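Recap from last week: sequence in, structure out.
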Amino acid sequence: MNDRVLDLVQEGIDAAVRVGNLSDSSLIARRVGQLRGFTCASPAFIDRVGVPQTPLDLKPEHCIAMFKLGTNQTRDWLFRKGGTEHTIQPRAPLSFSDPESAVGAAVSGAGFVRALDFTVEAQIAAGLLVPVLEDWNEGAWWPVSVVYPQHRQPTAKIRAFIDFCAGLFPEIKQEPIGSLRAAG
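Predicted structure tokens:
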């Protein structure tokens, strides 16, 4: 497992899992699930800067940036609620290429982080991170797809891999991640 976008044909790889919207390619994609993005910060950071009520309350310099895969450009944060959209361009002094480091920086009080649910669930449950702007998370779902080269017929091995991956996402979590907060 790694975060690189691999050339499946050139590297002789049968199939791969991709998270996010897929660019046009010569790959066949089968969507197997989705993950949800959340905005979080440590309790100490929230005590210092306050709880944002809307995305416009987020100061870009308080938002930990993540690089787009394979680039030196950072990802914008898109927030939706009803028909309203806001985009934040993070400009914190810290930028990361891997989500674990960005989440670790947020736990340490460096700012707000925008991360996928599986990267922050344990920290929220332990009370190390607090989700914010949960009502602005419409459309914060990231598709998860299995991709394989177009010129290959899906072998039994690829079909089994697709079925296995689809089984990891039996139903979509509808409850807010805040329900994982530590008691007390």
